Amino acid sequence: MAIEPGDVVVLKSGGQPMTVATVDENSVECLWLGEEGELFRETIPNVALSVVADTTDDDELDVEDDEEHEEAEREDVDADEEKSSKKNRRTA
């Protein structure tokens, strides 16, 4: 997988995630925030980096799927409660 601007990468030896700013033939310019919010920029050989799986889009989809699933569950519970209520009225 080729490293592209906007990818999130980490050093193969570990460390915090960094955002790729630019890529040339043998190196990648990376940006990251320090613990106190300071911005760092460093050019790193591309052989020292691994791309982190991009889960942003998946997370957004998961949230939407979760919301739809929760809504469907609420509708099922409401329908069950309504059936139970009608049944109780008939037997009373």
Rg for CA atoms: 25 Å
Largest β-sheet summary: 5 strands, antiparallel
Beta fraction: 25-35%
Given helix and strand content, the structural type is alpha+beta
Number of distinct helices: 1
Order of helices and strands: EEEEEH
* Anisotropy-based shape: rod-shaped
Helical fraction equals 25-40%
Strand order of the largest sheet: 4-3-2-1-5
Contiguous runs where pLDDT drops below 50 for at least 5 residues: none
Kindly give the count of domains: 2
Number of strands: 5
- For the residues shown, what is the average pLDDT? 82
Summarize the structure.
This protein has 92 residues and is α+β, with helices and mostly antiparallel strands. Helix content is 39%, strand content 29%. It has 2 domains: 8-51, no CATH class; 55-92.
Give an account of the 3D structure.
The structure is a single chain. This protein is α+β, with helices and mostly antiparallel strands and 92 residues long. It has two domains: 8-51, no CATH class; 55-92. It has one helix spanning 56-91, and strands spanning 8-11, 18-23, 27-33, 39-45, 49-51. A hairpin with a 6-residue loop joins strand 1 (8-11) and strand 2 (18-23). It starts with 7 loop residues before the first strand and ends with a helix. The mean pLDDT is 82.
